[in-house]
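Suppose you are handed a protein chain with no further information: no name, no annotation, nothing but its sequence. What can you learn? This example shows the usual starting point.
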Amino acid sequence: MPELFDMAVVQRGARLRRSPFFESTRRYGCRAYTVYNHTFLPTRYDEFEVEYQALLDDVTVWDVSVERQVEITGPDAFEFTNLLTSRDLSKCDVGQGKYVVITAEDGGIINDPVLLRLGENHFWLALADSDVLLWAKGVAYKLGMDVEIREPDVSPMQIQGPRSKEVVHALFGDDVLDLKYYYFLETDLHGIPVIVTRTGWSAEIGYEVYLRDGSRGNELWEQVMQAGKPFGIRPTGPSDIRRIEAGILNYGIDMTLDNNPYEVGLGWLVDLDKEADFIGKDALARIKAEGTSRKLVGVEIGGDALDLNMTRWPVKAEDAEVGFITSAAYSPRLEKNIGYAMVGIARAELGTTLTVEAPSGNAEATVVRKPFVDPKKALPKS
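A reasonable first move is to predict its three-dimensional structure. Written in structure tokens, the prediction is:
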């Protein structure tokens, strides 16, 4: 068994949170964690390329309790949640989810959560790595809206990969097979209350299981592992290789509060025609009309296989710095280094040649289309 990661290396005291699945991740040999939303996120149990291949071939399970929820209820919950996001929630049914952005008054991206609508006035926001609970409470207080905003006892895990459908069928029966992409059902597993969604961060066939009783995390984990055993299930961290292939962005790396949706390719999440107002609407209308001065582009990077970048690497053209790499990794199936670069708009045209200052030395890069794999998302919708 591989040597376990010594949590004392990074943790002093109880400030950092441990998920309901934490002891299970330790027991199954997690070798590294990061901190995300003040909580430990398992990042790997094996080599990254081994875990990537397991995701492509079979089925993987991830502890993503770091997707902390903001729950919004009360008489004004629909109006309030519709104000927080640029998507038109009148087009979101009860029982449906949406990928959304939450924007500031200047159009900057505060978060890009998955929203679930549990009732007419009942919403969950499954968060990326920023404190939306505080933002939402501040907005509600300022506007005097009749809502209750809290962090509920909800902890998601993801079951991802081509055999994930077989695993959730074994766990939850036929009803789960009827779920359409980005829809969910409320159910239980031998008395453990959960919500099962047809979503994920892998761009493969996938599901998320939202545990609604944190005291039963290890019990749920073992039931998932037992059901998945015939299908080759294994715990892994989220795959950066696969999400870069798919054009999936990571908040805090590929976009921050300093970015607006249009410059990172998320303009399709901004519904300027929706009847209701939303925070940042005027700013985003102006940005769309004027255009952006920079853009997040896909790049292929030459040279030897690269590890996932730990910092933003400078990007140059004609010896002048014109941007930076946000995410980059080697794709085994494409046999190329791929990634994203934030560059000035003049350098964003397809075919543009750039120079990346990687730790191993300068490498030539070319601007290409993204996503790099399955641009129509046929796999996760299948």
